[in-house]
Design a protein that fits this description.
Helix content: 40-55%
Strand order of the largest sheet: 1-2-3-4
Largest sheet: 4 strands, antiparallel
Distance between the termini: 93 Å
Number of helices: 10
Structural class: alpha+beta
Radius of gyration: 48 Å
Number of strands: 13
């Protein structure tokens, strides 16, 4: 078992290496006897054995030859820290232990000329019955052809069955008493099963730790072929030659099938590894990209805040300039931007009391209001900006719209009743390429539309209280 354990780990396992390990163990025991002037007890000798094998011999606990028989051997002063408890804590060590012990049982039973069952019952191993049963079943399944190798079926572990999707992803499930599939969702269980499955695939049919069994199989096959050839010659049966050819063809087909299965297993493992590397690379790149964005945003934030402060300062300066130059009637204009420097002013006093919301609909960065015309630009009957229609037979322009009502031949600038006296005043207005935000209220100013925009509060929201 020592040799198989070293080969399982990919280490040197020639007779010289095995003898070297034996010398290390023997030397350690002898030094202890000389130092303490007494012969150590069995447990002490075994403890020397396993510790030297692990620390200096390059072996693992699952590959130590005494693990099956001295399962309960303490590994430290803690009585619960035993050979078996350490093996069972690590799923990879446990898989390795079952495989190597199965091979040791198979080889030893073959040399002694007894069955595996006789071997399991003839020696007083300390391993629990559940562990013994798993070793025995592994050997039995291998002997009857259920398993192709002593590592076990990678897709059937402890009653859990693997399902490999088209994308190569492995999922696990169990079958209840009614053979209904129950998917495994626990992340810890899935991780342990995937770990054990990967080891079974890696250390499967072609791994050198099983080379002795393969050589025995080959010798048995050669002997069977020689016996059959002698029988064929003695019987001088032409049909026997045909049978032999058929048997050889079948054997070649079986060998080819196994080789193809091995190739698929290797490709599957490689595909999973490459996919894992790709996902890791993508995750790292996403993280780097997010870091770059975060840094860029942090660097740009001070500039944006500075530009905003500058814009607010400029807007306040424009507002102060407008107040210094006096008011007008209707909507006064003088700014650019989404809302601009627009405000509602009284036609009688020039006092500004509200600010409508202009919208830059054509997204040119400028709000273009239509200002009040100079007196010289007005049609006959209108003598100054902000005056009301004085012609007896003229019609008033509809509030808020730049179009005439029936009875008038041409349009003048828009009119709106800013002071609520029932008579629309001439007013500046938003230009044709932009818009104004309004709310349609009831006639008395309460909630509920009346279909008209004819109240100051419907335009200048700063007048709301």
């Amino acid at each position: 078992m020592t040799r198989s354990g070293l080969l399982f780990d990919g280490k040197k396992a020639d007779p010289a290496k095995i003898q070297e390990n034996s010398n290390l163990i023997g030397g350690a025991v002898l030094k202890d006897v000389l130092a303490k002037s007494r012969v150590a007890g069995l447990n002490d000798v075994l403890t020397f054995d396993v510790n030297r094998a692990l620390k200096e011999g390059g072996q693992s606990l699952a590959g130590w030859g005494g693990a099956f028989y001295y399962w309960n051997l303490p590994m430290s002063e803690n009585p619960k820290d035993t050979v078996g408890s350490r093996i069972q804590k690590d799923p990879l060590e446990y898989e390795k232990f079952i495989a190597l012990t199965s091979k040791a049982v198979l080889d030893t039973a073959g040399r002694l000329g007894i069955s595996a069952e006789q071997f399991m019952t003839a020696f007083g191993a300390q391993a629990p019955e559940k562990v013994k049963a798993e070793v025995f079943n592994r050997v039995a399944d291998y002997l009857d052809g259920t398993l192709e190798n002593l590592m076990g079926n990678p897709d059937d572990i402890d009653g859990y069955k693997a399902s490999v999707g088209a994308d190569g992803k492995v999922s696990w499930y169990q079958l209840d008493k009614g053979l209904k599939r129950i998917d495994v969702t626990d992340a810890t269980t899935i991780s342990r099963l995937n770990t054990r499955r990967d080891l079974r695939l890696e250390k499967g049919i072609d791994h050198q730790w099983q080379a002795d069994k393969a050589a025995a199989d080959k010798a048995a096959a050669d002997k069977a072929a020689a016996d059959k050839a002698a029988a064929d010659k003695a019987a001088a049966d032409k049909g026997a030659a045909a049978d032999k050819a058929a048997a050889e063809k079948a054997a070649a087909a079986e060998a080819q099938r196994r080789e193809e299965a091995n190739r698929r297993q290797r490709e599957e493992l490689q595909k999973r590894q490459e996919e894992e590397r790709r996902r890791n690379d993508e995750a790292q790149e996403r993280l780097r990209e997010q870091n770059r964005k975060n840094i860029a945003e942090m660097e740009a934030r001070p500039r944006q805040e500075e530009a905003r402060r500058k814009e607010i300062a400029e807007e306040r300066e424009r507002e102060r300039n407008r107040h210094r130059s006096g008011g007008g009637s209707g909507i006064g204009a003088g700014g650019t931007g989404r809302t601009g420097g627009i405000q509602v002013c009284s036609p009688s006093t020039g006092q500004c009391s509200g600010r409508p919301v202009f919208l830059d609909l054509n997204r040119d960065g400028v709000v273009d209001p239509v200002p009040l015309p100079e007196a010289s630009d007005l049609p006959a009957g209108l003598t100054s900006p902000g005056s009301r229609n004085s012609e007896p037979n003229s019609s008033k322009t509809e509030p808020g719209f730049d179009k005439p009502v029936a009875g008038r031949s041409e349009a003048v600038t828009p009119h709106f009743d800013w002071n609520g006296d029932g008579v629309p005043d001439q007013t500046a207005w938003v230009g044709p390429n932009d818009g104004m935000l309004v709310i349609d209220l009831a006639t008395d100013g309460s909630a509920g539309p009346d279909g008209q925009i004819d109240q100051t509060k419907e335009i200048a929201f700063s007048l709301w209280k």
